[in-house]
Amino acid sequence: MSSLLNADVIEALVDRARTSGGPVDGVNELLNQLTKAVLERALNEEITDHLGYEHGDPAGHGSGNSRNGKSGKTVSTVAGPVRIDMPRDRNSSFEPRIVPKGARRIGQLDDMILSLYSRGMSTRDIQAHLGEVYGVDASPALISKVTEVVTDEITLWQNRPVDEVYPIVYVDAIRIRVRDKGVVTMKAAHLVVAVDVDGRKHVLGIWIAENEGAKFWNTVITQLRNRGLKDILIACCDGLTGLPEAITTVFPQTVVQTCVVHVIRNAMRFVSCKDRKKIAAAMRDIYTATSIDTADIALNALEKAWGEQYPGVLDVWRHAWNEFVPFLEYPPELRKVVYTTNLIESINYQLRKITKTRGHFPSDEAAMKLLYLGIRNISTKRGGESGTGTWGWKQCLNYLVRKFEGRLPLN
Predict the structure, then answer these.
(1) For position 3, what pLDDT does the model report?
(2) Which of 125, 293, 294, 316 could form a disulfide with 289 if both were Cys (CB 3.0 to 4.6 A apart)?
(3) Whole-angstrom Cα distance, residue 283 to residue 267?
(4) Region (Disordered): which ranges (predicted)?
């Protein structure tokens, strides 16, 4: 704006505002008047371009179309509600671009609503914010309508093509409350995040379900296959009923790797505070073992020392053992990558921040809308459409090429 208005012009506008008795920074005063002037000037330029002649120019006589007065219209802007005069033509063929016909909000107000919504603000919170800060009267119904514009975007995003091969895929979930058939129930929003051959991470989709199981996960994995996925080298997940079986049914060569951190956390639930450090040290000998044999020795030592007092700890490890041991074959660089689903948990943490303010969602669609906007907001901050990188990926990739020979594209 400073390049368009010199100091003298700005000073004149400020003096005029002071002379009129209005506040210089008032929503409906100086900024409002300036916005009105700019919009009306632009509209007049547009109709001149549309008609092909200036106002009052004799060249317009007999042209077949001419100006036909103006009509008043109020639009909401970031400077507050602005009353403008919209020029008209006799043939009603003028279609303004800066303030389109039917538009009631301009100046990125819709983007502002989406931004506030994606950060967890409720529709009524947004209504109050717009009213207090910008003097805009936006009803909850209007705000909901604005956020509905992402519905088609979600459908396209959830069904977009994916890569044929992903070296690593993480799966985890967050719990949300959703009203279903008149009753508020707890559901899981499952996120699938993949690491591509360049080490970039991408959220492949979100699936909401009340109950997980083989049927649900078969549907998810089949959808990914139908979107172009042909192979997964390592799938990292934790305690999701039916998921390992669904993955190996569709992709028989995939190694299903449990999240080590989840195993540790689940085991520590059975340990009293006074023994937590000792048992944590004993478990460390298991997941830092250099081979399956040494890990088995460390597990037996844990059982001998603590099995009688904390049998639940041993049950957790025994139950997860078959999906834990593949981890022990990886080099240190790859262990750091698949050690935990912390990558996806960091995303879930951000999503929990924006969902915790909601008592519950009125529907699965409403929950999906907020989760998608949250993911879009996180992605914009952390790498955009290209995703975010993976530390030490080149060393991991060299190992994966040898370990899973012939399954990774080399060009």
Answers:
(1) 47
(2) 294
(3) 9
(4) 51-76
Q: Strand runs (DSSP E) across 90-152, as ranges?
A: none
Alpha carbons 76 and 92: distance in angstroms, whole number = 24
- Quickly count: other Cβ atoms within 10 Å of residue 30's Cβ: 21
Distance CA 384, CA 379 (A): 5
- 211-223: per-residue pLDDT in tens? 778 889 999 999 9
How many Å apart are CA 104 and CA 72, to the nearest integer? 12
Q: In sequence order, what DSSP letters do the residues of 333-352 get, joined into one string?
A: HHHHHHS-SHHHHHHHHHHH
pTM beyond 0.70, yes or no: no
Written as six digits, the tokens of 87 are 């020029």
Distance between CA atoms of residues 76 and 98, nearest Å = 13
- According to DSSP, the β-strands at 80-89 and 67-77 are antiparallel
Q: What are 165's two structure tokens?
A: 């091969």
pLDDT at 312 over 90: yes
Q: Say yes or no to pLDDT of 141 above 80.
A: no
Residue 276, Cα to own-chain centre: how many angstroms?
36
- Cα 36 off chain centre by: 35
Bridge-based pairing of strands 67-77 and 201-209 is unpaired
Give me the amino acid identity at 233.
L
According to DSSP, residue 100 is labeled -
* Calpha distance 341→328 (Å, rounded): 16
In 3D space, the residue among 136, 73, 83 whose CA is nearest the CA of residue 108 turns out to be: 136
The answer to whether 39 and 70 are in contact (CB under 8 A) is no
pLDDT in tens, 318-334: 999 988 888 898 888 88
Cβ-contact 369, 157 below 8 angstroms: no
What is the C-alpha separation between 367 and 120, in angstroms, rounded? 11
CA distance 338 to 333: 9
**Three-class DSSP labels, 139-173:** CHHHHHHHHHHHHHHHHHHHCCCCCCEEEEEEEEE
Domain limits of the chain?
1-103, 108-158, 163-403
Residue 198 Cα distances to 195, 337, 392, 396, angstroms:
8, 14, 11, 11
Please tell me the distance from the alpha carbon of residue 260 to that of residue 285, in angstroms, as a whole number.
13
Q: Which amino acid is at 304?
A: K
Q: What's the CA angle centered on 216, arms 339 and 118, to 5 degrees? A: 70
Place of tokens 């931004």: 115
